[in-house]
Design brief:
It contains five helices and three strands. Helices cover 57% and strands 16% of the residues. With 86 residues, it is of the alpha+beta class. The mean pLDDT is 94.
């Protein structure tokens, strides 16, 4: 598990909100996700890149768009890692 990458990704409120949007609203392109923020689309894309690097989102092409999907497995792994400390 890439715990350090997951913690780094979760440390930023924009990235946590991106995860929430993907959970609540399902797969979305970066442009639609960017509409929820007062950030440029390239900034949102950079946040999505870091989430991909941590394994928290998966990117796939659908036609001309790239759709982002939440992958909860790193969060489950993190939960399992934290359980003995609770």
């Amino acid at each position: 598990m890439r715990t350090d990458h997951v913690f780094t990704a979760l440390a930023n409120p924009v990235r946590r909100e991106l995860l929430r949007l993907l959970l609540d609203e399902g797969d979305q392109p970066a442009g639609r996700l960017a509409e929820h923020f007062s950030l440029s689309r390239p900034s949102v894309s950079e946040h999505l890149r870091l989430l991909r690097h941590a394994g928290l989102v998966v990117e796939r092409r659908q036609g001309r768009e790239r759709l982002y999907t939440l992958d909860p497995q790193p969060l489950k792994d993190l939960r399992d890692w934290l359980t003995p400390y609770l």
